[in-house]
Every structure is written in C-alpha cells, then in structure tokens.
Amino acid sequence: MLGFIRRIGRRDGMMGGGPEVARGMVVPFTHPTCASAEAFEYLQRTVLTDDSASGELCEGFALKLAIRLVEVVEDQLAPVANAMVEVWHCNAEGYYSGENKGGIYDASDVDWLRGFQFTNRDGDVKFETIFPGWTTSHAVHIGARVRRYDGSGQNVIFDETVKMFFKDGLATKIGMFAPYTSNFQARTLNGNDADYRAAVEAGLSGGMDLDDSAYLWPIVMLTETKVDARFYLVLAPCDDGQKLVCPV
C-alpha cells in the first residue's frame, strides 16, 4: 500500500499512528509567497502536515525532506550551523496555506505545510511533509528561505529564498493517485519554469568550479511508503557577498 497521509490521522502503508508535531517558538514575518503579504506565524517544527491550531491534516504522499546547508570557504564546502531554514509548499490540489484564492479555495486561517528549523553543526535540517502538488505558474517545487544571524542572534546578516525542484517523472507518477487527481490546474513542467532553467544554466553548483561539486546533486528516492529527498543549499560567493544556490 502506498504511503499516503490521510485526514483520519494515520499514514497508510506506514507503521504507527498519526504524525506528531514538534512545536517550539513562533516567529512572525512577512512571507514572499503570500499574495496578501500578511505576516505569518511560523512554527519551529519537524512535521508540517497539520495545522498547528485545528489539527487539520493535509492528505498526500509522505515526503521525508532533508536539507544540508553549506558554504564555499577557500574553494571547499563547509557546513553552516545555526541558520534558520524555513520551508513551504502547496498541497496536493496546488494551494498554499495562509491564502484565499477568491473563494475557490480558502486556507487563510491554517498553517500546514510551513515551518522552520535551525541547522545543526553539520548544516542539516529535516522535515516530514507530503509531496507537493503543482500550480499553473511554477513547476513542482518546495520553497526554502535561509536566514543567518550575527553573533548576538538578533540581527539578520543573510536572507534569501530558493526553490527545490523534483523530476517531472516523479511528479507524474505520484500525480496519478488521489488526492493529486483533484488538482485541476494546468501543470508547469520544469523546462517551462524560468527559475528551473536559470538553475540549469548556472550549472551543477551555480557556476562554481569545485572538485567535490558532484556531492551537491540532490538525492531523491521513491518507495512504496514515502519519498526520501535530500537537497543541498549552497551559500556561494558573489560580487556583493554570498548568494543562495540550490543545485538541480
């Protein structure tokens, strides 16, 4: 049985009961994907599949998401610790929490499929979510925002967003099952997404020439119970400091 997360609070095809949300501090901020540009309250949590207030659960194919944040130091890759990594993505039907699509779909009062973690000493964060759906304007992806702070922990010294893409074939395979079959939006393929094309044109590691650049390839594996995905986000040098790169 495929590993779909259902609204009744269990994971079909997986051991155990419903997901447990690791709740922590709440951080308000203005999020770039919100059409109304209102402040969200993000939760520091590992499991993203439910709304923190109502417990409303998003249906979809289970996704274990691991992100490693590294930076280029003297042509070598070094892990970045204590950085804030926020992630967000749409649900299977192609809608985002915190938004109201003109009465077509109102999710303005929920916060599922959003959250953040701080990187550990190896530069890692992990999330449990569902495989994202698609929209007419962007290929299947997960958004990520990286913020670094100064020594006081109060002042932001780096703040950028990036997209993490999946292969078209994987999205097609998962999209054959409910609830993805309820997504009636015209799907944008990677090749038609301007951000994806820009990433490809930049090269494996954003144009950087590193001996271990192949290490930065994303690793995505599909099983009957879940998708395991590891992405590498790279703080690469640029003319005015650093830029955030996600190799594709």
Instruction: State Rg.
Output: 18 Å
CATH architecture: Sandwich
Along the chain, the helix and strand elements come as: EEEEEEEEEEHHEEE
Strand-residue proportion: 35-45%
Distance between the termini: 30 Å
Structural class comes to: mainly beta
Number of domains: 1
Stated plainly, the CATH topology is called Protocatechuate 3,4-Dioxygenase, subunit A
Shape: globular
CATH classification class: Mainly Beta
Give the count of helical stretches.
Answer: 2
What characterizes the major β-sheet?
7 strands, mixed
Uncertain segments: 7-39
Overall pLDDT: 81
Helix content estimate: under 10%
Number of strands: 13
The CATH superfamily turns out to be Aromatic compound dioxygenase
Brief synopsis:
Helix content is 6%, strand content 35%. It is mostly beta strands.
Structure description:
This protein has helices at residues 168-174, 194-202; strands at 4-5, 26-30, 39-43, 60-73, 76-79, 84-88, 114-118, 124-130, 141-149, 156-165, 219-222, 227-238, 241-245. The protein has two helices and 13 strands, in the order ββββββββββααβββ. The protein has a single domain, classed as Protocatechuate 3,4-Dioxygenase, subunit A. Mean pLDDT is 81; it is low at 7-39. Strand 11 and strand 12 (227-238) form a beta hairpin. It is globular and about 50 Å long.
Element layout with pairings:
Blueprint: E1 4-5, E2 26-30, E3 39-43, E4 60-73, E5 76-79, E6 84-88, E7 114-118, E8 124-130, E9 141-149, E10 156-165, H1 168-174, H2 194-202, E11 219-222, E12 227-238, E13 241-245
Parallel strand pairs: 4-12
Antiparallel strand pairs: 1-4, 2-3, 4-5, 4-8, 6-7, 6-9, 9-10, 11-12, 12-13
